[in-house]
Write a structure and sequence with these properties.
7-stranded mixed β-sheet; 11 strands
Length: about 120
């Protein structure tokens, strides 16, 4: 059973940085190809894609709104994926969810989310 646990959220000042982590269990980054995605969800809005990568082979993708500010990465030894966020803006305020999808399946599993608030 896939389980995802996000961490690293908190209060950040505009222009600041934050690194989110997503620890995965139930599958192995090094031997199975999953697509890992970060989705922020602001109050009253739908979850939106910001970044994804493959745990083994595949492209890394970013939404235009975060390209150049956010970096997604992984550590296969820790079965974890990260989202480094820089130059944060108030509009980046959201609950950030990590999702995992086996490359050949449409089903995504979700974590519980971690709140990021960008405010002075």
């Amino acid at each position: 059973q896939v389980q995802l646990v996000e961490s690293g959220g908190g209060l950040v000042q505009p222009g600041g940085s934050r690194r989110l982590s997503c620890a995965a269990s139930g599958f192995n980054f090094s031997t199975e190809n999953y697509i890992m995605t970060w989705y922020p969800q602001a109050p009253g809005t739908a979850r939106e894609f910001v970044a994804s990568l493959a745990t083994r082979v595949g492209p890394t993708n970013y939404a235009d709104s975060v390209n150049g500010r956010f970096t997604i990465s992984r550590n296969n030894a820790k079965n974890s994926v990260y989202l480094q966020m820089r130059s944060l803006r108030p509009e980046d305020t959201a609950v950030y969810y990590c999702a995992a999808r086996w490359r050949f399946s449409p089903r995504e599993d979700w974590g519980q989310g971690t709140q990021v608030t960008v405010s002075s």
